[in-house]
Design a protein that fits this description.
alpha/beta; eight-stranded mixed beta sheet; globular
Amino acid sequence: MTDIEFQANGGTAPGYLATPASGSGPATIVMQEWWGLEDHIRSVCDRLAEAGFIALAPDLYRGDTTTEPGEAQQKMMALSMDQAEQDMRGAVDHLLAHEGTEGDGVGSLGFCLGGGLSVWAAAINPRIDAVVTYYYVMPHGKPDFSKIDASVLGHFGEADDFIPVETARELGQEIRDAGVEASFNFYEGCGHAFFNDTDRLGTYDAEAARLSWDRTLEFLRKNLS
């Protein structure tokens, strides 16, 4: 588990890399929430490594993090999608070149803003074979869903104040209409960020988090084997 620099668009980008004790396994990128690459996202990478995956979270804010929702929204809105695309491509390339990566494709997993970016990453990179999106948020438009060559798994809370159930269902249908296999799970009584155990928004739900994580690991193993 270590902070690294990886190649991206002729330069370098920062990120956090976690590897399993065996040194090898299927690989996935992990996309941050609007807070930045903070301890929760690092812990997700660590949990993936414990489950046998190599995980890399690119640091889209270049070291900046926040705990204030207003500032987080400002940072999300100011994000350059050109830079984000370069970082995501670089992260995928880094994992594919990693000596421990098993298979010829990688996964993408993200939460909130990262949930949207996880889908976006697959639309710009055919080497992504599995997409997991938690409570998808993407204020910067939509990628071309028809370019996704991967299965998509979604997790949404039925009491999410940011992403209403109907909006999530419409997103799933739009992705399927583009010819992509997509399965969305909905968690009764759960709000936005129900997986985040820092409980910054007061919405953490331990049971839904456990169930969604089990489904995520099963999905990634199936599609990255």
